[in-house]
Specification:
Length: 719
């Protein structure tokens, strides 16, 4: 009998050739068996010839509970497989050049409520290049609700490489098969591997074909491909998962539940370079796909790495019901370190309008400052309205990031908004959907490229985006109405779709909704460009040291401009200074004499007014403004409206000039058109210009009068 040595274990080889009709003794490829022996043996490598999917015999792995130490089920490796070099030249010459991809290998549960193969003492369990399938001929529902393999030894290392798993005849990985079949087999479940308190599980370069347990109505994870509990190391890399769902119930209460990985109290998890394909057969109310439900144990040094993951809707076979939900769930509790990077969820070829909690990341009680969520992309068919219900998508977004426990408790008032939380930060986020909520966040720092859809910010958040698009012209795009909200929002461009016939643009709709400004939470909002009314300008009439609110919108300083804090505001107004190129002025006013809430035009992270010198030398910055004739006192006016200039120096530094110290407010002769009784004034600030680089200027304002207001010409001058 020939042997091979792998992982310092010597394995006896038994050869199986399913294409044979007459069995040999299994000692050589020429004298191979055509099926497994009646029981498995210790320290044995079963080498199976790769064949087509209809050989003369379909080998059956013998069911049972085994207490031996080492087992290999090895479809004859290809030259590119890791195990190929460990094979003897005898089998390489005989079977190494076969054209087929897999060795056929049945794994059927002949006894209800028991796994097919239970390994209680195994150290190494290795399966290579096998089509590990079940067939439908004699299986009841109970038979297929148990795992094919159950591994329980604490020292067990389980490895599947270059394999395929599914039900014989259901080829969800074959587009031609999908196009010609109307539904999966009813008894087609997942239930591939259960590993409990083992050393390691490694699954790589495999294809999984499974259908979900469509009879589950309670949202539980009844169909699990992999259930791994208490395992030290998990590596799931370079695999393709094809999951097919179908509801056999006409009721809208039918759910479809399938979890790829259920992990409980595990240590180190690496999921990289995996592709997940969703295949839907219609009449689905709530298809619930969970890539991962993961809960590490307290005080474990636990790492969870997800990288380069793609999720696609591969094919849609029928109509979709009125309400659709699909959750890809990462539930991290008590993690030491997690990383989700390069995650691409693409439903753009699906008729779905965009689902509900498609990607849910729950990062609770995390202790590491190095956790990472980066490059998350979710795409839909943004023109689709299939199945959309206007009332069902406004609580959780397509992407939900829940990190509220990380930030600590939140009360009805917050003293300071967060800007850069270090425990939960998500960068390079993109969500493109039609109607409904795109993003729901609690306690996170999110830096987005583009978000199309509604945004809900609860608890403490920092949200920054290059572009936000509201597809519903008659509905808000950002909701910060939670009493516990304490968020900072920075958006370069906020765009409202104004030509949608279903939800036509309503110019009176506020795009950003806050909680009660005076008694609620603290929010800072900065928008560079906006094509619609961003928020209400109602001000507080009382001082409140526990609440701060700054909102700033600048549309190139022409047309739409709006800014506010707790008690001061500025907005575009149809009064202009004669001779200016600006289309409008800023009307600035305050509601309470509270110098703590001075309004700054050009608050970080937005830039202020930009002036570009044409030459160097001594220059003067001038800002023209006019006061209403209702002002009764001009005392201390130089500190009520003043300029701050950031002037680049030749050594690369920036010198800050302040008109309170280095400038003044002077009388002016300008004429203001559109209002009567405007007193013309100007703020001047001498500066020394050493380079021709841009100079940023901020305008600060807090000039209180019960009915007074001030017009500012947004065209500043450098002379």
């Amino acid at each position: 009998m020939s042997t091979i040595i792998y992982n310092n274990v010597e394995y006896n080889q038994i050869f199986i050739d399913p294409s044979k009709t007459v069995a040999g003794d299994g000692s050589t490829p020429e004298n191979a068996l055509f099926d497994f022996p009646t029981t498995l043996a210790d320290n044995t490598c079963y080498v199976i010839r790769r064949t087509n999917e209809s050989p003369n015999t379909l080998p059956q792995i013998p069911n049972g509970t085994y207490d031996f130490k080492n087992l290999m089920i090895c479809g004859m490796p290809k030259e590119t497989d890791l195990l190929y070099k460990y094979m003897n030249q005898l089998e390489k010459d005989a079977w190494g050049k076969d054209n087929f991809d897999y060795a056929m290998c049945r794994v059927n549960n002949t006894t209800a409520n028991q796994p097919a193969v239970t390994l209680t003492a195994v150290n190494d369990f290795i399966v290579n290049r096998c089509y590990l399938f079940r067939d439908e001929s004699d299986l009841s529902n109970d038979n297929v609700k148990e795992f094919a393999f159950d591994v329980t030894n604490a020292d067990a290392c389980t490895k599947f490489d270059n394999c395929k798993f599914g039900f014989l005849g259901d080829n969800f990985d074959d587009d031609a098969w999908l196009s010609s079949h109307s539904a999966p087999n009813n008894k087609n479940r997942a239930y591939f591997l259960h590993a409990s308190d083992t050393q390691a599980v490694s699954i790589s370069n495999c294809v999984f074909n499974a259908a979900s347990d469509y009879n589950s109505l309670n949202g539980t994870y009844r169909s699990c491909l992999l259930t791994v509990e208490g395992t030290q190391n998990i590596n799931i890399c370079n695999n393709i998962f094809n999951i097919c769902s179908k509801s056999n119930a006409a009721s809208s209460a039918s759910h479809v539940c399938c979890s790829y990985l259920y992990g409980n109290v595990c240590r180190n998890v690496n999921m990289s370079n995996n592709v997940f394909n969703m295949i839907d057969y219609g009449n689905i109310y709530c298809p619930h796909f969970s890539i991962c439900f993961f809960m590490p144990e307290n005080d474990y040094t636990t790492n969870f790495i997800v990288d380069n993951t793609k999720v696609n809707y591969k094919q849609m076979k029928d109509n979709v019901a009125s309400c659709v939900q699909g959750s890809i769930l990462f539930d991290f509790e008590n993690l030491t370190h997690y990383s989700i990077t390069n995650f691409d969820l693409d439903f753009s070829n699906s008729p779905y309008f965009g689902l509900y909690k498609d990607l849910l990341i729950s990062c609770k009680y995390s202790r590491s400052p190095n956790n990472k969520i980066d490059n998350i992309s979710i795409k839909y068919n943004t023109s689709s309205k299939v199945g959309y219900n206007d009332n069902n998508n406004n609580d959780f977004g397509s992407l939900a990031i829940l990190c509220d426990s990380v930030m600590g408790s939140t009360g009805s008032k917050q003293s300071t908004p967060i800007y850069t939380p270090t425990i939960c930060k998500a960068t390079n986020i993109s969500v493109l959907r039609g109607y409904g909520a795109a993003l729901y966040s609690t306690g996170a720092c999110i830096e987005a490229n583009i978000i199309r859809g509604l945004i809900y910010l609860y608890s403490q958040n920092y949200f920054k985006a290059n572009k936000v698009i509201n597809p519903k012209g008659n509905y808000r795009v950002i909701d910060m109405s939670s009493a516990a909200c304490c968020s900072t929002v920075s958006i370069d461009t906020l765009e409202v779709v104004k030509d949608d016939a279903t939800y036509p643009y309503d110019s009176s709709i506020e795009q950003i909704v806050f909680y009660n400004l005076e008694y609620g939470a603290t929010n800072n909002v900065f928008i560079n460009h906006c094509n619609a009314l961003p928020f209400n300008l109602s001000m507080s009439t009382n001082k409140n040291s526990n609440a701060r609110e700054t909102s700033w919108v600048a549309n190139d300083y022409n047309g739409l401009f709006i800014a506010r804090n707790l008690s001061a505001s500025a907005k575009s107004w149809g009064v202009t200074r004669a001779g200016t190129t600006a289309k409008a002025s800023f009307k600035m006013e305050t509601t309470v004499n509270d110098t703590n809430n001075e309004l700054t035009l050009g608050c970080n992270p937005c830039t202020g007014f930009i002036l570009t010198p044409s030459e160097t030398g001594a220059k003067t910055i001038t800002a023209y403004f006019g006061s209403s004739n209702s002002y009764t006192s001009f005392a201390g006016i130089g500190s009520k409206i003043w300029l701050e200039a950031f002037v680049p120096q030749t050594d690369g530094s920036v010198k800050v000039y302040n008109s309170i110290v280095q400038g003044s407010v002077e009388q002016d002769t300008s004429v203001w058109e559109g209002d009567s009784g405007v007193k013309p004034l100007k703020a001047v600030l001498p500066v020394d210009v050493q380079t021709t680089d841009d100079i940023e200027v901020k305008v600060h304002f807090h000039w209180y009068d019960s009915i007074g207001y001030t017009y500012l010409d947004p065209e500043l001058h450098l002379d």
